[in-house]
Task: inverse folding
């Protein structure tokens, strides 16, 4: 068994887990939920094994490095972080419905990584600029942040759906599909907390990236498109925090901002590599 | 706020302004990621036409992150931060420092969450029981008693209210670092052939020549490739000299620069020098070594050692993948040594009076990025402060609990109330656990 097989299997496990969570949300058969959680845990384990195996394979090839050096590897870590965050939320809040809105992001990350044609999935040796521990810290911090923002976006979508269904019936309990979701107040609070968590890691990601750039080129900030988009994303979430903290924004507006924020993350990550050019375009090859 | 707000101060202190500036910064920053920055005027005309490139130049969009209007936005953000902080800090200071045992009962009664109990016993006994229940989760309980009532107070994390201000200050510190770097630092570049020495470098993006104040020599440059042919390592052996005395020697690679007297030399690139070879020589008996550039069919001498050598002839190798070289070498009156060697190989030369290691490689020049940035430590300190501040501001909160024991209509009344500035749901959970302890106590009866 090699790492690409394990990671390929993981993609399907995550697809199945996402389907089960969505099934649970629609049909509300408790058994589905138990299976979904079990499958998610299995997915996490196979993915972890896949990552470790890929790491070992790189050493066997004599070009050993942590599997965090290109687009494919970062997508895998992204999906991995979402699963860990999601499982934490599920156990902490004892609610499986959230999985229907969050786990698809983990699946999409893995699926895009595994099937996209824009980049290679091979283990390649590190060029000199990428041989740095700051780079590893940078990738880890950024992708934990991005994963948190993906979770927040899922929660935002969930909030908007529930709020809409409640409006239709004038704020009374509907007994419908969305009733089984956590209370609006709870979703709102969780969205906010997830954004805070993501903001801390995004800040750490930008800072470690700056330190890396400074040790490699003597410039900690050069306004290249990737850096600029990461700071744009940072501004958006920063504004979101202030709007909530000092203006009391909440509910739908924060839910929308969680969605807009993720679009900015996706652009930082994908758009810059494939639509714009800059120092970071290494990630694309 | 006691004093009447000056409208100008109110404007600069408002969070609405902060939201507006952050939004405008986010939107305008996009421009520079779509329109390439710092290209030559011709490029803009070629891509966007005469009319648009005039507009771009007029609005400094070709170097927008250093334009007056973008810097003004950053300045506005800074002013906003300073004014906002100055306006709020005294209030926060007061909240952190105030004596919470002075909080009037009228305010405590209105506090949420809050719960009232009736105690079956006198005030003193009630206070002792309440204190015991509170002590299960809180240390440092303070107390104030009069004849008729007792107030207990405990708090956690009052200082965390400063977390936000640490974050805001960190941004200013980072800006200060960036300004110091711009005013007192520079970025420069030099292409230094192996074996060569320089005492100056060339400013990036300008045409200034910057004297170093010392000599920098590249002893050697080595390029290592992976089997796939992609670069594995660029390594330059650098020496710093003053008046021909060696002060420092370091081998640098990408991500591991050399620093000396506030200047840092980064391995940035390299260039093969056409038609030139580089010989590294080491006298294995004395350990003395040198690196000398050379051209085929030209004699080179190693001063001080009496060594003279050269490439007398070269030809393609049998498999036609490279060249091999015929070397001529002497260090005295004896017959010169002559031998063939490949590029990159090391030959051992046995001479009557000494032995030498002789390595022949392509001659490279190393591309060094040179930076002086006295502001970088400010930036790093600001970054550290920011992460610390964010952690404090997000994940720690100031929690306060009061317990007021009074008598009312001959009954002992106990009010338990409190609040947190953040994570109110989390606080309520702990607060409800405290209330449950009171409710389970035989002598306390809840009043709803
Ligand atoms: C990019 C710049 C900024 C960053 C990174 C930043 C960061 C933060 C953070 C992390 C918090 C805590 C929020 C929370 O706990 O949820 C906060 C609160 C706050 N920020 Fe900022 N901020 C920035 C700019 C500004 C500006 C320009 C103002 C000017 C008005 C401002 C005013 C405030 C206020 C009033 C609070 C609430 C403080 C309190 O509770 O007393 N911020 N900021």
Result:
């Amino acid at each position: 068994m090699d790492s690409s097989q394990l990671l390929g299997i993981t993609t399907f496990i995550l697809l199945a887990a996402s389907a089960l969570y969505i099934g649970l949300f629609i049909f509300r058969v408790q058994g589905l939920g138990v299976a979904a959680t079990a499958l998610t845990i299995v997915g996490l384990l196979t993915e972890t094994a896949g990552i470790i195996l890929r790491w070992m394979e790189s050493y066997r090839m004599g070009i050993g490095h942590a599997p965090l050096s290109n687009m494919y590897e970062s997508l895998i870590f992204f999906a991995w972080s979402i699963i860990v965050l999601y499982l934490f939320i599920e156990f902490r809040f004892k609610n499986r419905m959230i999985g229907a809105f969050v786990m698809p992001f983990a699946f999409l990350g893995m699926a895009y990584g595994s099937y996209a044609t824009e980049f290679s999935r091979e283990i390649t040796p590190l060029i000199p600029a990428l041989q740095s521990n700051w780079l590893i810290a940078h990738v880890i911090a950024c992708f934990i942040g991005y994963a948190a923002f993906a979770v927040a976006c899922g929660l935002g979508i969930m909030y908007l759906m529930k709020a809409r269904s409640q409006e239709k019936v004038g704020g009374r309990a509907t007994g419908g599909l969305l009733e089984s979701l956590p209370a609006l107040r709870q979703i709102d609070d969780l969205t906010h907390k997830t954004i805070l968590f993501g903001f801390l890691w995004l800040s750490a990601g930008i800072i470690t990236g700056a330190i890396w750039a400074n040790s490699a080129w003597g410039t900690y900030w050069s306004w290249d498109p990737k850096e600029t988009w990461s700071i744009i994303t940072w501004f958006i979430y920063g504004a979101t925090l202030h709007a909530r903290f000092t203006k009391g924004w909440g509910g739908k507006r924060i839910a929308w901002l969680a969605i807009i924020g993720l679009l900015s993350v996706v652009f930082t990550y994908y758009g810059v590599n494939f639509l714009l050019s800059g120092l970071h375009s290494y990630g694309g090859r | 706020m006691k004093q009447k707000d000056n409208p100008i101060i109110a404007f600069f202190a408002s969070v609405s302004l902060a939201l507006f500036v952050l939004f405008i910064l986010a939107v305008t920053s996009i421009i520079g990621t779509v329109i390439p920055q710092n290209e030559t005027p011709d490029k803009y005309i070629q891509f966007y036409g005469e009319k648009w490139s005039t507009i771009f130049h007029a609005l400094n969009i070709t170097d927008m992150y250093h334009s007056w209007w973008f810097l003004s936005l950053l300045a506005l953000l800074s002013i906003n931060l300073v004014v906002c902080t100055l306006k709020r800090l005294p209030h926060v200071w007061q909240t952190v420092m105030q004596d919470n045992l002075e909080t009037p009962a009228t305010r405590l009664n209105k506090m949420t969450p809050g719960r009232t109990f009736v105690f079956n016993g006198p005030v003193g006994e009630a206070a002792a029981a309440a204190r015991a229940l509170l002590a299960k989760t809180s240390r440092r309980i303070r107390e104030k008693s009069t004849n008729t009532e007792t107030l207990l107070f405990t708090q956690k994390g009052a200082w965390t209210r400063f977390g936000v201000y640490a974050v805001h200050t960190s941004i200013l510190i980072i800006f200060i670092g960036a300004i110091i770097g711009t005013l007192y630092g520079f970025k420069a570049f030099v292409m230094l052939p192996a074996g060569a020495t320089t005492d100056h470098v060339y400013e990036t993006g300008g045409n200034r020549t910057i004297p170093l104040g010392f000599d920098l020599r590249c002893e050697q440059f080595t390029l290592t490739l992976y089997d796939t042919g992609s670069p594995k390592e660029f390594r330059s052996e650098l020496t710093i000299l003053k008046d021909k005395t060696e002060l420092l020697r370091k081998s640098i690679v990408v991500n591991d620069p050399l620093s000396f007297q506030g200047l840092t030399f980064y391995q940035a690139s390299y260039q093969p020098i056409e038609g030139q070879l580089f010989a590294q020589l080491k006298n294995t008996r004395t350990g003395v070594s040198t690196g000398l550039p050379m051209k085929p069919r030209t004699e080179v001498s190693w001063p001080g050692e009496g060594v003279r050598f050269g490439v007398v002839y070269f030809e393609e190798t049998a498999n036609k993948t490279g060249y091999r070289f015929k070397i001529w070498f002497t260090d005295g009156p004896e017959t010169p040594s002559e031998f063939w060697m490949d590029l990159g190989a090391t030959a051992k030369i046995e001479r009557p009076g000494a032995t030498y290691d002789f390595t022949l490689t392509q001659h490279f020049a190393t591309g060094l990025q040179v930076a002086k940035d006295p502001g970088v430590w400010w930036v790093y300190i600001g970054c550290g402060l920011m992460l610390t501040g964010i952690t404090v501001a997000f994940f720690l909160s100031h929690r306060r609990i009061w317990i007021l024991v009074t008598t009312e209509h001959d009954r002992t009344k106990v009010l338990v109330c409190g609040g947190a500035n953040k994570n109110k749901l989390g606080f309520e959970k702990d607060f409800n656990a405290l209330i449950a302890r009171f409710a389970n106590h035989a002598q306390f009866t809840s009043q709803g």
